[in-house]
Specification:
about 90 residues; alpha+beta; two-stranded antiparallel ribbon; elongated
């Protein structure tokens, strides 16, 4: 699980990611969400028999700023509510 900022998740971009073989650069796609899973091909654990590395999977977790951000709060407060309910599917009988 890899924490990403709201900005990185919304706008996408390249970030550094720790792997078992050292840090690598990975591209976060625009509009990524918590739970998005990305594959780092050949960056996983070394198979002793084949001598090849497996893949490492990275699950994104969007995190809010550690300290309150007044501008971010104002941005959302001043926007109209879209009525989107991310729990809607959970409420179906």
């Amino acid at each position: 699980t890899l924490p990403v900022t709201l900005r990185e998740a919304l706008l996408g971009g390249k970030i550094r990611v720790p792997t078992v073989s050292g840090p690598v650069e990975m591209t976060v796609p625009k509009h990524a969400n918590t739970g998005t899973t990305l594959r780092l091909k050949g960056k996983g654990i070394l198979d002793q028999k084949s001598g090849q590395r497996g893949d490492q999977y990275v699950r994104l977790e969007v995190v809010l700023p550690a300290t309150p951000d007044a501008d971010l709060e104002a941005f959302f407060r001043d926007r109209p509510d879209t009525g989107e309910d991310p729990r809607k599917e959970m409420m179906k009988p």
